[in-house]
Structure formats: structure tokens, C-alpha cells
Design goal:
By secondary structure, the protein is an all-alpha fold. It contains 13 helices and no strands. The protein is globular and about 75 Å long.
């Protein structure tokens, strides 16, 4: 019986192709996204740079040529290789304690990227949950969510972060939690609005008609349609978290020495800004390039997954 059905289906497909020889199957959504991704230079440039930085951070113990905490006072302020006195032993030079600057930069990326990623991830979880339940249930639930969002928006973010970090210290855990507190409302506002549009769609009504629970509808029907917005916001918030962490470390309230971070490297190098400017320019340019690359990648993801949302 199964073989008869298969042969019947094959015969029907052959007959359809004979009737319409120019019939072409429309591309699937995944095929469309692959095509858009293949021609999006910004996505590939930004994504490649971010991937390289992430791999350097992950495999820092293997890649880094020296100990990030090892000091050699006989080799203080060795200039980078583009200077006439530079040496390939220390391609990016050394700092005031004779520590290899390339090693410090790689390990600093490990700290800065980890803080940015986990802060944006925790904020995404909190904000997405609040935004979805507020947009789906509406009524009093939505009123409570919007009250929390308005209360958060009324607080000056950078001043609050400075206060919290100064009270609880500048450890990695504290920075992650403080930055997550700063960013969750962006997810909540965006996803609440989109959820209110999705809940009126036919596929949500069909799921409700067959008796699906509200939790299953939110997880299985609404959340997959929000992932594009979540990913785009996530990439932007990672870049912003790295910048704010660098700001706090530069002010002496973030990561404390000798643990390296990009902001701390800028802070440590400002004393030698006019004598050894590479101590400031190298981590500063790195922060700039990473922030730009992450934003390019996020913009590319938006264009690939939802081209109708482009300006």
C-alpha cells in the first residue's frame, strides 16, 4: 500500500511537471536568508572580526605569548614594532611594569567580551519574559510591566551604575549584574510591541482553538517569531555593555588591577599618554573596532532575517 501511494505521488508530480515545464519551486525562508547573507558585506566583515576576537579571548592561554601578570622591570615601555626601537618579542610593546601588551590586550578582551556577552544575555532573558507576558496577556499584567519599564527609564542609567559599582565593588559578577539591570528595558519595550501584533495572528488563534496552553503558545508560537528582534538587540547591547564597562574601568570603578580589561588598559596608559601614546591608542582603537564590528553584525542580521525592516 505504501509503495502504491509513493508511486501515485511520483506520477502526480511528474504529470504536474509535464503540464507546466517552467514550474519552479519557491525558495524556502532559509534559502532566502542564505542568499541575503552571501551578499551582505557588512555582516561578513563584522562577524569575521567579532569571531576572531572571540576565538582569541577563548584560547587566550594558548595564544598569548606571555603571562599577563608577569613583570619584567628591565623591559619597561618597550615600543611597538612600528617604532624603530620595537622588537618582535613584544609586537605591541610593554607597559610600565614590563608586561607584554599583546598578552594584556588578549586577556583584556577575554574579560570585556565576557562581561558584555553575559550582561546582554541576562538582560535579554529578563526583558524578553516581561515583554512577552505584557504583550500577550495585556490588562493588568501589561500595566505592571509598563510600570516597571517606566520606573527603570526614569533612572539615570550611568549614574546608577556608577553608584552601584562604587558600593558593591568592581568585580566581574557585579559588573555583569549592573549592566544587565541597565539594558533589560530595551528588550521589554521592543518585544511587548511585537508580541501585541503577533497575538492577533491566525496561527495564534488556531493554537488557542485547539486548546494549547498559554505557556505553550508563548514558547512555541510567539517566541520563535521574536528571535530576530532579540538577536539584533542583543548584538547592540553587547557593544554598549563593552563601552560602559570600559568607561567604568577607566574611571577606576570597574575591573581592578592587575586583572586586564580594555578599559583598564586605557586607564593605566593615560599617565603615559604624551610619552607612550600606544598604551592608550591600542586598547582604544580595539574597543572602537569591536563596537563597530558588533553593530555591523547586528545590522546584517536584521537585514538578512527581516529585510522589510531596513531603513
Amino acid at each position: 500500500m505504501a509503495s502504491d501511494l509513493s508511486s501515485t505521488a511520483a506520477s502526480a508530480a511528474k504529470a504536474a511537471s509535464d503540464v507546466d515545464p517552467f514550474h519552479v519551486e519557491p525558495p524556502t525562508p532559509w534559502q532566502l536568508m542564505r542568499r541575503r547573507a552571501g551578499g551582505h558585506k557588512g555582516f561578513w566583515i563584522g562577524g569575521t572580526f567579532v569571531l576572531i576576537c572571540a576565538l582569541l579571548a577563548i584560547f587566550a592561554p594558548v595564544i598569548a605569548p606571555f603571562d599577563p601578570f608577569g613583570q619584567d622591570l628591565t623591559r619597561r615601555f618597550v615600543p611597538p614594532i612600528w617604532n624603530a626601537e620595537g622588537t618582535w618579542t613584544h609586537p605591541l610593546g610593554t607597559d610600565k611594569f614590563g608586561r607584554d601588551y599583546l598578552t594584556r590586550l588578549i586577556y583584556g578582551g577575554r574579560v570585556s567580551l565576557m562581561i558584555g556577552f553575559f550582561a546582554a544575555f541576562i538582560a535579554a532573558v529578563i526583558g524578553s519574559i516581561l515583554g512577552m507576558i505584557g504583550g500577550y496577556f495585556g490588562g493588568r499584567v501589561d500595566a505592571v510591566v509598563m510600570y516597571l519599564v517606566n520606573a527603570k527609564l526614569s533612572l539615570p542609567g550611568l549614574i546608577v551604575s556608577l553608584s552601584l559599582v562604587s558600593v558593591f565593588g568592581g568585580s566581574i559578577l557585579v559588573l555583569v549584574l549592573v549592566l544587565a539591570f541597565l539594558f533589560w528595558d530595551n528588550y521589554a519595550v521592543a518585544l511587548r510591541s511585537v508580541t501585541m501584533q503577533i497575538r492577533s495572528q491566525d496561527f495564534v488563534a488556531a493554537a488557542e482553538a485547539v486548546g494549547a496552553s498559554r505557556r505553550r503558545i508563548i514558547i512555541s508560537e510567539i517566541l520563535p517569531n521574536l528571535m530576530n528582534q532579540v538577536i539584533v538587540i542583543f548584538t547592540l547591547e553587547v557593544a554598549l555593555a563593552i563601552l560602559i564597562e570600559a568607561t567604568l574601568s577607566f574611571l577606576g570603578l570597574g575591573i581592578q588591577p592587575p586583572t586586564p580589561s580594555w578599559g583598564l588598559l586605557v586607564s593605566e596608559g593615560r599617565e603615559q599618554m604624551f610619552f607612550n601614546p600606544y598604551l592608550v591608542t591600542i586598547p582604544g582603537v580595539t574597543i572602537f573596532l569591536v563596537a563597530i564590528a558588533i553593530n555591523m553584525m547586528g545590522d546584517g542580521i536584521r537585514d538578512i532575517t527581516a529585510p522589510e525592516g531596513r531603513n
